[in-house]
């Protein structure tokens, strides 16, 4: 459902409202391209084997390389399984840091109502949202140097991984994703 903020409609957050995304946790993240357009490449089917592999595009190199650089910019992040697919990426991000993260934004000249609204919608420093926003921004900036039409969906999907068994299952899902492309929910013909 869309709500108005400052007389403009905006999409409601799909984040869990009772979860602080600065919490230490394992997160399963999916980031899609806009309209699920296959900017990142295509799946190749090997005729001799049943295996399918991802044939990466030039743009997918940015998606891959900037993902691998996340811990360089966010030292509290550890990366786990990751895959670039034709129109999305899947990855596991583990956050582990001190909860004393300060925010250095001056809000002296802003009304308390606007401050409260901004606080609700803005990614917090040290949060999963701040990591993903930075990653998506870097990929988009560089991808548009190759294809000016490149765009990612404005939102992303995350799942808080509750236990080691779920972590193993999600790792397996990510690693097998190219083989399951034809039945993937992100599959586009």
Number of helical elements: 5
CATH class bucket: Alpha Beta
List the helices and strands in order.
Answer: EEEEEHHEEHHEH
Euclidean distance between termini CA atoms? 29 Å
Oligomer: single chain
The CATH architecture category equals 2-Layer Sandwich
Structural Rg: 18 Å
Task: Summarize the main sheet.
Answer: 4 strands, antiparallel
Total number of beta strands: 8
The count of domains is: 1
Strand proportion = 15-25%
Describe what you observe in this structure.
The protein is of the alpha+beta class and 189 residues long. It has a single domain, classed as Alpha-Beta Plaits (2-Layer Sandwich), CATH 3.30.70. The protein is 28% helix and 25% strand. It has helices spanning 58-68, 70-73, 112-121, 128-143, 164-175; strands at residues 2-5, 8-11, 25-32, 41-45, 52-56, 77-84, 88-95, 157-161. The strands form three sheets. A four-stranded antiparallel beta sheet has the order 6-7-3-8, sandwiched between helices. The chain has a two-stranded antiparallel ribbon with strand order 1-2. The protein starts with a strand and ends in a 14-residue tail after the last helix. The model is unreliable at 99-108 (pLDDT under 50).
């Amino acid at each position: 459902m869309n709500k108005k903020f400052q007389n403009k409609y905006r999409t409601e957050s799909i984040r869990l409202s009772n979860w602080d995304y600065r919490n230490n946790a394992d997160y399963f993240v999916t980031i899609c391209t806009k309209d699920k357009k296959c900017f990142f490449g295509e799946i190749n089917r090997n005729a001799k084997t049943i295996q399918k592999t991802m044939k990466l595009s030039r743009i997918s190199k940015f998606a891959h390389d900037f993902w691998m650089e996340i811990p360089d910019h966010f030292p509290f992040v550890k990366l786990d399984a990751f895959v670039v697919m034709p129109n999305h990426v899947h990855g596991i991000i583990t956050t582990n840091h001190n909860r004393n993260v300060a925010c250095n934004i001056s809000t002296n000249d802003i009304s308390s109502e606007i401050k409260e609204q901004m606080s609700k919608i803005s990614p917090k420093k040290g949060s999963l949202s701040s990591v993903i926003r930075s990653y998506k921004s870097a990929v988009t900036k560089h991808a548009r140097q190759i294809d000016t039409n490149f765009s990612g969906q404005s939102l992303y999907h995350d799942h808080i991984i509750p236990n080691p068994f779920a972590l193993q299952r999600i790792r397996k899902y990510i690693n097998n994703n190219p083989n399951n492309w034809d039945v993937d929910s992100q599959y586009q013909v």
